[in-house]
């Protein structure tokens, strides 16, 4: 089932899924932004073409449970990216 989608405000989209998830946080002229601060933002992310293509068989719901799991995943990916940038094991 398609998710209701508003305009995706992120400056960079369409990256591989893990990077696209990391790109749900960005900084613009208004300051730090986080697309995943609400289930509405989650619906925008889930409705973006690359995410829809990758998750089509699963069709995850834009609900609080999915949002919580994605926030945990994003935190883990950020830790991995930070460790790699510092060349830590």
UniProtKB/TrEMBL annotation:
Which SUPFAM superfamilies did the record assign?
Jann2411-like
Task: List the Pfam families hit by this protein, alphabetically.
Answer: ABATE
Name this polypeptide is given? Uncharacterized protein
């Amino acid at each position: 089932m398609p998710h209701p989608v508003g305009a995706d405000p992120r400056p960079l989209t369409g990256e591989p899924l893990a990077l696209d998830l990391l790109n749900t946080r960005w900084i613009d002229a208004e300051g730090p932004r986080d697309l995943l601060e609400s289930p509405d933002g989650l619906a925008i992310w889930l409705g973006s073409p690359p995410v829809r293509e990758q998750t089509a068989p699963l069709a995850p719901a834009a609900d609080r449970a999915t949002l919580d799991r994605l926030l945990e995943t994003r935190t883990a990916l950020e830790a991995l990216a930070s460790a790699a940038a510092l060349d830590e094991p």
